[in-house]
């Protein structure tokens, strides 16, 4: 079995890939790419503490593990939706919306 090494990527004991020497998860870089359609240079402009090498390694890791990472993203989105549903309506949001109703 061929094992690919990714420069700039460390994987924790529970399987979460991080950029070496940072607290930045690979999935965070990937979400910037997917959500905003940012290329590596734009991601670096937004996160100047990351090198282009780190960003390219994160994207390479994603494309090599796309199915499992996409599944992790979906699971996280589902968790957020579940938490939001459990919390119900925000009283602050309700108050702010009622202010819009004022003349």
Walk me through this protein's architecture.
The protein is 61% helix and 6% strand. With 103 residues, the protein is mainly α. It has one domain (9-100). A two-stranded antiparallel sheet has the order 1-2. It is elongated, with a radius of gyration of 18 Å. The model has no long low-confidence stretch (mean pLDDT 92).
Largest sheet properties: 2 strands, antiparallel
Shape annotation: elongated
Average predicted local confidence, pLDDT: 92
The total beta strand count reads: 2
**In which order are the strands of the major sheet placed?**
1-2
Low-pLDDT sequence parts: none
Provide a count of the helices.
5
Q: State the secondary-structure class.
A: mainly alpha
* N-to-C series of helices and strands: EEHHHHH
The count of domains is 1
Q: What does the radius of gyration come to?
A: 18 Å
What is the first-to-last residue Cα distance?
69 Å
Strand content: 5-15%
Helix content: 55-70%
Quaternary class = single chain
